[in-house]
Amino acid sequence: MASVLVVNSGSSSFKYQLIDSESERMLATGLVERIGEAQGRAVHTVVASDGAEEKSERELPIADHTAGFAVMLDAIADLGPSLETHPVIAVGHRVVQGGARFFEPTVITDLVRINIDELSSLAPLHNPANLEGIVAAQKAFPGVPHVAVFDTAFHQTLPPAAYTYAIDAELAAKHRVRRYGFHGTSHRFVSHAAAEFLGRDVGDINQIVLHLGNGASACAVAGGRSVETSMGMTPLEGLVMGTRSGDIDPAVLLHLQRRAKLSIDEVDDLLNKRSGLLGLSGRGDMRDVVDASLDGDADAALALDVYVHRLRGYVGNYFAQLGRVDAVVFTAGVGENSPVIRARALEGLESFGIRIDAERNEARSRAARVISTDDSTVAVLVVPTNEELEIARQTLAVTRA
Ligand SMILES: Nc1ncnc2c1ncn2[C@@H]1O[C@H](COP(=O)(O)OP(=O)(O)O)[C@@H](O)[C@H]1O
Ligand SMILES: CC(=O)OP(=O)(O)O
Ligand SMILES: [Mg+2]
């Protein structure tokens, strides 16, 4: 039974999944992290057909992504699954920025690699890392097609009114400054899964999808098409995130450069890596912020207030953009696991047709579920995302076409 390898590369880490190409079952998943540091770490989990998981962990220096792929291959050889029984027939890569060039999953040729590299200026934190993963994976699996699946692709349907920044039009066009939107693979997967759960045709309903992970974005999906989303030219715009500020008055950056004498790189680092929940509370992980707030930590409480305030603003905005909303859907780490954030995001919105059922919201489950009351006119759902499965599907679709 053939398999597809899905790779999601970050700057000093990559995550992977091996997925059976017929049954779509996850055969193994893993994480190689702290690449380039004195001590790296690799976690490999084999998933048996009954769902039982066997996890193993190694600490060792991992010089670069190529070395990381060798570590992954060793783990697979030592612990399974057997690549003789499950030969890898294609590799799917998450690529964050596809610009205005890539709207579809794309087989990676030399030219495509050059284009992804060239788009790095529009996603300086993500595309260089994605490319490193591609180069290393092509070395490790030379004989099979490699396919890039772009975070931006689902948002190709944004209307000009949603993707245009109100700045000098010529300058913007010259430097490709516009909103692209991200997390599209997740928004596509989740909006389709939500429609299926509701027994509705995705083309017939309007949804607000809230992808709340480390990175977070909201998406207004009308009839299966993205019509508005909260991330912009880069994944920095929009919601408050683990370490990213989200929306901010651009004049703040100018002020900090002039008055605090921060360099451009320091401002970049501040907004992307030292802001959001981390900047406000000293904690970037939502679980820690919620716990600290329950312990009476005032900074953590304010961080939550700011996070929820921004989120509610986007929900209201997208109600106005869509006119009619059939479902609000929570997904990703925070969206799937935090009843308190879900409740606070939508409390007091009865006049919008939203009523959360407290008991349903608190119930723990890994399956798609409804958390609104039966008389809520808008269905509120929790739908687990699965970007890797979506990437595997799109990868296979391209290679089979
Ligand atoms: N039970 C929980 N309550 C609140 N937040 C949670 C819970 N479980 C996970 N999270 C949060 O989810 C976030 C990670 O989401 P995830 O989608 O895995 O991120 P990413 O894929 O972007 O790395 C973290 O901030 C983590 O704290
Ligand atoms: C695009 C983006 O923000 O991705 P992530 O949430 O994985 O950081
Ligand atoms: Mg994620």
TrEMBL record:
Binding, substrate: 94
Localization: Cytoplasm
E.C. code: 2.7.2.1
GO biological process: one example: acetate metabolic process
Source organism, top-level taxon: Bacteria
Binding-site list for Mg(2+): 8, 387
Enzyme active site: 151 (proton donor/acceptor)
Keywords per UniProt: ATP-binding, Cytoplasm, Kinase, Magnesium, Metal-binding, Nucleotide-binding, Transferase
Cofactor note: Mg(2+). Can also accept Mn(2+).
Annotated InterPro entries: Ac/propionate_kinase (IPR004372), Aliphatic_acid_kin_short-chain (IPR000890), Aliphatic_acid_kinase_CS (IPR023865), ATPase_NBD (IPR043129)
The protein's annotated pathway: Metabolic intermediate biosynthesis; acetyl-CoA biosynthesis; acetyl-CoA from acetate: step 1/2
Molecular function via GO: acetate kinase activity; ATP binding; magnesium ion binding
Function per UniProt: Catalyzes the formation of acetyl phosphate from acetate and ATP. Can also catalyze the reverse reaction.
Protein name: Acetate kinase
